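A protein record in our archive is deliberately plain, so that people and models can read it alike. The record that follows is passed on verbatim for readers who wish to inspect the format.
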Amino acid sequence: LPLVDTISQLHHSGDKINKIRGVFSGSLSYIFNKFSVSESKFSDILLEAKNKGYTEPDPREDLSGNDVGRKLLILAREIDLKNEFSEIKINNLIPDELQEVSYEGFFRNLGKLDEKFNKIKADKTEDEVLRYVGELNHKGELSVDLVKVSKGSSLGQIKGADSIFEIYTDSYGDEPLIVQGAGAGAEVTARGVYGDLLKLV
C-alpha cells in the first residue's frame, strides 16, 4: 500500500501527524476478521491462513506482534521520531507456555490458543469485532494491541486480508485520511517489491 510515501509527503509538507492507527498485518486481519464473526475455532482459522500463504512460515512471528511493531517503527522513523523497538508496548498473543516451545510443539498445542481466544471473543458485544491494531499517538508513543471495535467503524468493516490505516493530521482535522487495501498474499507482496525496485533504478 502507498503508506510510507503518503506519510512522508504529509510530514515533509509541514502537516503535523498527530496519530496513525491501523491494522498492519494482513495475516492477522484475515484471522480476526473471520474469527470475530464465525463459529470456527481460532486454531482452524490460523491453519487456513497459513495454508493460504498469509502468515509467516512460523505463525508465531505474526502472533507475537513483532511484525506489526517493526512496521509501526518504520512509520515513526519516517516522521523523524527516535523510538526504538524495545520501547513499543506489544501485546504478544501467544500464550506464555507456547512462546519458547519448538515449531512442532507449537502446532501440537494449538488448543491452548482456542482456550485463550474463546474467552476474549466471549467478552465482546454483538456489534463488536476484534482487530489487532498498531498505534502511534500524539505523544510519539507506539503500541500494538488486540482491541474491540464497532463493526461500523473503518477498522471494523475491513474484509479478508485487507490492511487499513487511519492518519490523523492537523490539516485533516477530526476525520482521518484512510489508506486501505490488500495486506497479504504472494502476488501483492511481489508487486510491492517490484514497485520499490522501479523507484531505486
